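Severity: low
Component: inverse-folding endpoint
Summary: output formatting inconsistent between runs
Steps to reproduce: submit the following structure tokens with default settings.
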């Protein structure tokens, strides 16, 4: 018979701790956070937006697992360097498919 506690083992590694990769308190911070979250998820990085849209004066954050922070930073740096032209090209390509 299998040990029922074996299935409920918790990964206590700090690699899964969520760390902030983006934070903004600008008037459009929620929109920015959603865009950053979308870029990360489109590139295979699990991320989540943290913030309260009912109180827009508070900051919004995007968090990723600690194990993915370097890859997430690289993805965001590449996306910023590519600029809006690359985003528009990618959107046009996705619409053609």
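Observed output (run 2 of 3):
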């Amino acid at each position: 018979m299998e040990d029922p506690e074996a299935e409920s083992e918790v990964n206590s590694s700090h690699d899964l701790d969520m760390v902030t990769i983006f934070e903004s308190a600008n008037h459009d911070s929620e929109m920015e956070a959603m865009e950053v979250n979308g870029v990360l998820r489109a590139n295979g990085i699990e991320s989540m937006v943290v913030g309260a849209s009912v109180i827009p004066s508070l900051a919004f954050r995007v968090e990723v697992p600690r194990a993915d922070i370097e890859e997430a930073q690289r993805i965001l740096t590449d996306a910023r360097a590519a600029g809006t032209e690359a985003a528009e090209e990618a959107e046009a390509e996705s619409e053609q498919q």
